[in-house]
Design a protein that fits this description.
The complex is a heterodimer of chains A (about 150) and B (about 350). With about 150 residues, chain A is mainly alpha-helical. Chain A is about 75% helix and about 0% strand. With about 350 residues, chain B is of the alpha+beta class. In chain B, helix 6 crosses helix 10. The chains are: A mainly alpha (about 150), B alpha+beta (about 350). The interface between A and B is medium-sized, with 36 and 34 residues.
């Protein structure tokens, strides 16, 4: 699809801000156009990277669960971790990746709460691994705010 | 309802509230952008009274069908009523109306502060050369809010009492419930923050203060001389620990990548020194840290809620979608970094 989505979204962002907004009389409408323009800018970035981010996150969470399943003693959680670790992404559509991502994130919440409450020797390293993952994931999802200056 | 439809209905309402006035006209009704928790309109009212023609610019705040923050408009109105006589720069509140027959939804009317602007939290230099002056006033006023006696100024009306050692739990319970009800996907960082906050309750404040609840860049008006003329958006005000406001005002989200200068104004150390002097209170780093982490969580709860409103179609205001994307992203990063460090400390 040409022109590239990124170019179209960024182009529309500029058109909205430079050509459309100045001709609007209503303050509320001008504000909305500004917000929508900024979101087009953010969409340009997200469109390009969305699948890659989700695939990476899902793979990292599954690897983390596989590692944790070897240490966690709680039988129910161990089974849940083992099952989650065994899965894979069969579709690269964003909606499908999001469903998988949400399922894995739910298991991650459960694992992290369990690990935080444990003083076992294995718990500290797993907790650190979880935070390494969350730091990387939140940084990877960082949105670039458009420069308006 | 269009703006043209609104004007005569507002005029009819003013006629009802101002029996001494005649020939009331309402003009220039225009919705102001950004008030995601309440529809805000500016307008100009004119009328004949005592043989003279009088004009007054006004602001009308009407409940939306749904909102970013579910609040009672009488709480906000009462905050203006309590603080206006104290000299704190807030608009004069005029009328509070809950009868739906006038404008279909509850609303209140207050004075319009003219010739002022609000800084954007998403501008690296929201106040330009006025940053130092505006910043000193910003923290001075917050100190005065913390120092105010809620009972003496009538702020505590219909609020219910709260014990100092219960402030943190009430606020955390409230915002955790928002996340429980509104999250569209599991939130590992938010859940980790909630668990940390419950494991590490803060010391109680020495006294209960007025908490504005959303005191930050973007929620006050200043004039071209750099004078703060109006502190706005009191819809989340309550009684509680004054550190809640200090931490929210200093939250990294409002600093646009300048956490050393909260809200894009003065340096953090100077800001806190001014607040201590004006409030008569002392910054306790351990207590402040709890409220800082809490406030980033509260922010996440608000942005998560905004995302649900937009996703379900309950409210299609673009600002809800924007805050759900961008602000969630910022607060997740802020909290992850902070909590990861605390996790390491706890394991040492």
């Amino acid at each position: 699809m040409k022109p590239d989505v990124e170019q179209v979204m960024q182009g529309f962002f500029g058109t909205l801000l430079m050509d459309v907004a100045p001709h609007l009389n209503a303050e509320y409408s001008m504000g909305n156009v500004g917000i929508m323009g900024m979101m087009m800018f953010l969409t340009a970035e997200e469109h390009d990277r969305a699948a890659e981010i989700r695939v990476a996150e899902n793979a990292e969470m599954r690897a983390l669960f596989a590692e944790a399943a070897g240490s966690v003693e709680d039988a129910a959680l161990k089974a849940k971790l083992t099952q989650a670790a065994a899965g894979g992404d069969t579709s690269l559509r964003i909606k499908a990746l999001d469903v998988a991502n949400a399922g894995l994130a739910g298991v991650l919440v459960e694992l992290q709460a369990h690990v935080e409450a444990s003083r076992a020797a294995w718990a500290g390293p797993i907790e650190a691994r979880i935070w390494d993952y969350l730091l990387a994931a939140t940084e990877r999802r960082k949105l670039t705010f458009p420069s308006l200056g | 309802m269009t703006m043209d439809d609104l004007a005569p209905r507002i005029a009819a309402y003013l006629a009802h509230r101002m029996p001494q006035a005649s020939d009331i006209e309402v003009a220039g009704v225009s919705r102001i952008h950004g008030g995601a928790s309440r529809e805000t309109f500016r307008l100009s009212a004119s009328w004949r009274e005592g043989g003279n023609r009088k004009t007054r610019p006004l602001i009308l705040r009407r409940d939306p069908v749904t909102s970013l923050i579910e609040t009672e408009r009488d709480v906000e109105y009462n905050a203006y009523r309590a603080f206006h006589p104290t000299g704190l720069p807030v608009p004069e509140p005029l009328y509070l109306e809950t009868d739906l027959k006038w404008l279909d939804r509850p609303f209140f009317i207050m004075e319009q502060i003219e010739g002022c602007t609000a800084g954007s939290p998403f501008n690296p230099e929201p106040y330009g050369a006025l940053g130092e002056s505006v910043g000193r006033q910003f923290w001075t006023h917050l100190g005065h809010i913390a120092a105010a006696d809620p009972k003496a100024i009538g702020f505590d009306a219909n609020m219910g009492s709260i014990a100092p050692d219960a402030c943190w739990k009430r606020e955390l319970d409230k915002w955790e419930q928002v996340i429980d009800e509104d999250e569209l996907a599991p939130q590992p960082v938010a859940r980790a923050a909630i668990r940390w906050l419950r494991r590490n309750p803060p010391p109680p404040p020495p006294k209960i203060s007025v908490v504005h609840g959303d005191y930050r860049t973007g929620n006050f008006l200043f004039n071209p001389d750099g004078e703060i003329r109006a502190i706005l958006d009191w819809e989340m005000c309550h009684l509680g620990d004054p550190f809640e406001d200090v931490a929210w005002a200093a939250d990294p989200l409002w600093a646009f990548q300048r956490p050393d200068r909260p809200g894009g104004m003065i340096a953090r150390d100077e800001a806190f020194a001014i607040w201590e002097k004006e409030s008569g209170l002392t910054i306790d780093p351990i207590r402040l840290r709890w409220w800082e982490i809490f406030n980033s969580l509260k922010g996440l709860a608000i942005w998560i809620s905004a995302g649900k409103e937009y996703q379900t179609g309950a409210n299609r205001d673009p600002v809800l979608a924007f805050s759900s994307w961008y602000c969630t992203d910022v607060h997740n990063r802020v909290l992850a970094k902070r909590l990861a460090e605390l996790s390491k400390e706890a394991r040492r």
